[in-house]
Design a protein that fits this description.
Blueprint: H1 5-15, H2 21-31, H3 36-39, H4 48-63, H5 67-76, H6 86-100, E1 105-107, E2 113-115, H7 122-130, H8 132-135, H9 143-154, H10 158-177, H11 183-190, E3 198-200, H12 208-229, H13 244-261, E4 264-266
Antiparallel strand pairs: 1-2, 3-4
Helix pairs in contact: 1-4, 1-6, 4-5, 6-7, 9-10, 10-11, 10-12, 10-13, 11-12, 12-13
């Protein structure tokens, strides 16, 4: 969809809150934007967003491209500038993506404007800006978790998102050691201290510390299995299947299990 002056104005109002006047002046100079305040000192624009709006429109018209508009967004909302303000980064990203998605674009987590599915309605835009998938970004949830439950997260179906995510740990263990077992049996067989299939790298299970570390991973996996995987929708009393906070807790826990599995290696394959 073609970028027009309306979207430039709306985004200018947002990104102006994340840059000072002097930063905008330096940015215009570096990117060779026409600076209305610099060239017209007697008729200075009154606000930062108006400076951005006028100069972006001028540059886009001159180049017959939306690229200058995207470049300004990427410069002002560069993730590096938010290294001490993680929440601020995700909020800025959420704010700017709300109008951008109506035009089929969004700012990704690398701070780059990319094409995306175009938002058609206001309610859809609200839903996309509030879905749990975006709210989970600051938690650095493991990719294996997201892969298993992304559709459910987008639909805000927290129970099934957690249920599917919990399956991801068992699926990964089976893939790592060629097992066909499931549930607690799979975990007990795999993480047996007497005859293990998977071990933590550099952990020889020879000291109390090493055995405690190994058993901690084993019991984390068992907790996920009993707590989330073996619970049906009508029985979910240990957590609220409609609670976003409970969903974040569950997915963070499952993500931690995957982080630990990243540091495991197979020492014995099961024969099926």
């Amino acid at each position: 969809m073609k970028i027009d002056n309306k979207i430039i104005e709306e985004v200018s109002k947002i990104i102006a809150e994340y840059a000072t006047g002097s930063e905008i002046t330096r940015l215009f100079d570096r990117l060779e934007f026409y600076d209305y305040d610099l060239h017209n000192p007697f008729t200075k624009l009154s606000t930062k967003w108006k400076r951005l709006n006028h100069s972006i429109i001028e540059k886009c018209n001159k180049e017959k491209s939306a690229r200058p508009f995207f470049r300004i967004i990427e410069e002002i909302l560069n993730p590096i500038s938010f290294q001490d303000n993680h929440e601020g980064w995700y909020e800025a990203k959420r704010q700017v993506n709300f109008p951008l998605r109506f035009y089929g674009f969004e700012l990704d987590d690398a701070g780059k404007i990319v094409k995306t599915m175009q938002t058609k309605t206001y309610s859809e835009a609200v839903s996309r800006s509030q879905n749990l998938l975006e709210k989970l970004e600051p938690y650095k949830i493991h990719s294996n978790v997201i892969k298993f439950c992304k559709p459910e997260l987008l639909e805000k179906n927290y129970f099934h998102a957690i249920h599917e995510a919990s399956k991801s740990t068992l699926n990964r263990i089976r893939d790592m050691n060629n097992s066909s077992a499931d549930g607690a049996k799979l975990i007990e067989q795999t993480f047996s201290t007497k005859n293990p299939s998977l071990i933590i790298k550099n952990n020889r299970l020879q000291s109390d510390k090493e055995r405690n570390e190994y058993n901690a991973l084993k019991h984390l996996l068992l907790t996920i299995n009993f707590f989330y995987r073996n619970t049906t929708a009508h029985e979910a009393k240990i957590y609220n299947p409609k609670s976003e906070t409970d969903a974040i807790t569950a997915l963070t826990l499952i993500s931690k299990a995957h982080d630990l599995l990243d540091n495991c290696e197979c020492v014995r394959y099961f024969e099926n």
